[in-house]
Write a structure and sequence with these properties.
Distance between the termini: 36 Å
Oligomer: single chain
Number of helices: 1
Radius of gyration: 14 Å
Helix content: 10-25%
Order of helices and strands: HEE
């Protein structure tokens, strides 16, 4: 159940290959726009920007070789 829509925080994962580019853009003061989509990835729920990042590894998403 969502009880608050504004402001909202969205946590998402990205491939580690993109992390250096995101870090560089944030260091340069660039705004990185993001869209939050519904589960079907059809409808935009909200638009925002990256404010911070955490480069922790999500161990719950195991990859198979």
């Amino acid at each position: 159940m969502i009880t608050q829509l504004q402001p909202i925080t969205v946590v998402f994962s990205i491939a580690e290959d993109f992390l250096p580019e995101i870090q560089q853009q944030l260091r340069l003061g660039h705004r990185l726009a993001v869209d939050a989509l519904d589960r079907a990835q059809q409808k935009r729920i909200a638009t925002g920007e990256v404010l911070t990042f955490d480069n922790q590894i999500d161990t719950t998403r195991a990859r198979s070789s």
